[in-house]
Amino acid sequence: MNDIEVRHLRYFVAVAEELHFGRAAKRLGMAQPHLSRAIREMERQIGVPLLERTTRHVSLTPAGEVLLRDARTALDAVTAAVRRTRQAGQAEPVLRLALKADYDGGLLPLIFAAYEREPAALRVELVLGGRGEQEPALRDGRADIALLPRPFDDHGFDVEPLLTEPRLLAVAATDPLASRESLHLADLAGRVLPYGRPADREGDAPDPSTPQPSGRCDLAQIFNLIELGRTVWFPPVSIVRRHLRPGVAYRAVADLSPVWLDLAWPQESRSPAVAAFVRAACSVAAAHPPQGAESLVGVP
């Protein structure tokens, strides 16, 4: 069998995701007949059908489903290789750290200070994004290391647990819940989290597929909505300490899980700068365990 070229994988992924040759051809900027011939040639080279075609419908065969999964992984790896090669060839290499704004346990300034004392330290470039965006940034080479909340797909990563931090309920100070001394998730029935998720169905861990605020402006908007009684939220204690608001009360919820933050980086990484950052971050986290929530419960 001849080797499949990267461009052919891109063609197949476009068709497999669109399940329509016309839309896939438009997405790829090519003629539909040329795309159809390329897919048929792939099937001939591989030796199995990848798509079921009718006049009205295109679907994946079991073999096509396998190729779609592996082709996405392969294309991510190629993209990452190109980006990391460009990064290594820069006159002034940097360490690209992916994270969600404010989700650092309040430790990031201390980590940076400790990292700068490492002989292998590079200038740090932040890759900011919402929840769930750090993992793709690692996989496609936009980031060298990431600080990210669980759960996430750690396949292909080395992972170092960094900290576990309590979360509190942020609720309008005028809300009847603010007068309760003891709360459970079930007590939050009818309340919604930012972007509409029911608060009482938060479960054991944050959902990485749920859109989350990615910057300070978004946090300000969320706190405004909380003060107006339109939503509730479960911020980590470190965020509460940095964003105290007069119209927001904070309460402990007995069965609300904490947030777990991990450091992750590609398993194939041999970067001394990455290793130095991991050492610095773990040292700082060990020396500064998360503070308790007791002093914040009841604020304001």
List the helices and strands and how they pair.
Elements: H1 6-18, H2 21-28, H3 32-46, E1 51-53, E2 58-60, H4 62-88, E3 94-99, H5 108-116, E4 123-128, H6 134-139, E5 145-149, E6 157-165, E7 169-172, H7 216-227, H8 237-242, E8 248-251, E9 259-266, H9 272-287
Parallel strand pairs: 3-4, 3-5
Antiparallel strand pairs: 1-2, 5-9, 6-9, 7-8
Helix pairs in contact: 1-2, 1-4, 5-9
How many domains make up the coordinates? 2
Question: In what order do the strands lie side by side in the largest sheet?
Answer: 4-3-5-9-6
Topology pattern, helix = H, strand = E: HHHEEHEHEHEEEHHEEH
Tally of helical segments: 9
Give the C-level CATH assignment of the largest domain. Alpha Beta
Give the DSSP E fraction (strand runs of 2 or more residues).
15-25%
Percent range of helical residues: 25-40%
- Report the CATH topology name of the largest domain: D-Maltodextrin-Binding Protein, domain 2
- In CATH, the architecture of the largest domain is 3-Layer(aba) Sandwich
Overall geometric form: flat
Give Rg in angstroms: 24 Å
Summarize the main sheet: 5 strands, mixed
| Alpha-carbon distance between the two ends | 69 Å
Q: What is the number of E strands?
A: 9
Q: On the 0-100 scale, what is the average pLDDT?
A: 86
Parts with pLDDT < 50 across at least 5 consecutive residues? 204-217
Which structural category fits the helices and strands?
Answer: alpha/beta
How would you explain this protein's 3D organization?
37% of the residues lie in helices and 16% in strands. It has 300 residues and is of the alpha/beta class. It folds into two domains: 6-85, Winged helix-like DNA-binding domain superfamily/Winged helix DNA-binding domain (Arc Repressor Mutant, subunit A, Orthogonal Bundle); 94-300, D-Maltodextrin-Binding Protein, domain 2 (3-Layer(aba) Sandwich), CATH 3.40.190.290. The strands form three sheets. A five-stranded mixed sheet has the order 4-3-5-9-6. The protein has a two-stranded antiparallel sheet with strand order 1-2. A two-stranded antiparallel ribbon has the order 7-8. It is flat and about 70 Å long. It starts with 5 loop residues before the first helix and ends in a 13-residue tail after the last helix.
